[in-house]
Every structure is written in C-alpha cells, then in structure tokens.
Fold this sequence. Notes:
Elements: E1 3-4, H1 10-15, E2 20-25, H2 30-45, E3 51-56, H3 61-66, E4 74-79, E5 82-88, H4 93-103
Parallel strand pairs: 1-3, 2-3
Antiparallel strand pairs: 2-4, 4-5
Amino acid sequence: MALAITNENFEALKAAEQPLVIDFWAEWCGPCRMISPIIDELATEYEGKVTIGKCDVDSCDDIVSQFRVRNIPTIVFIKGGEVVDKVVGATSKETVKAKIDAML
Length: 104
C-alpha cells in the first residue's frame, strides 16, 4: 500500500536516501482512481528499495505548488532530493515500473 504523503512528512521523505515516487491525485479524479491500484502494487513490489506514496492535491497545497502540478494524475520521481522524471496523465504499470527501475 502506498504511503500517504502530507505536508508534515514530505520534507523527511524527500531528504531520505531512498528514491521517492509521488502520485499526485484527488478522490474526485477518475484517471487518478484508475491508476491508484497500480501505485499500491508498485509500493508493495519496491518496498525497502523505493518509497512510493500518494499526495492528495486538495490537502497539500505547498507540495503541489513546489512541483507545479497543474494536471492530475501526475507522478514525480525524486532521487537525491531532485526530480529526475515526471509522468502527467494516466499511464501503464510498465511505464511507471521502467521509470522506477531507471532510478535504481
């Protein structure tokens, strides 16, 4: 299950050594709900190697602004505290997996 990323835990997760994947989503977003199970599956598959979490855009304005998220779903890939990749819109598990593997 993907971790809930909030304003409170974000900075610590971003500063950690482990790569971070953030799925920016909202409950009311159809495509977000479509890829949600994929994010949860990948969180389980990569447990201990990559931190994978979901950030609700309706409750985390600071994080959304920091990454200039304008459309959801948006998946951001962070390594060493820096954004290394980004996917905007619904995508396949294979695409997300390939981008995660590229960070490892």
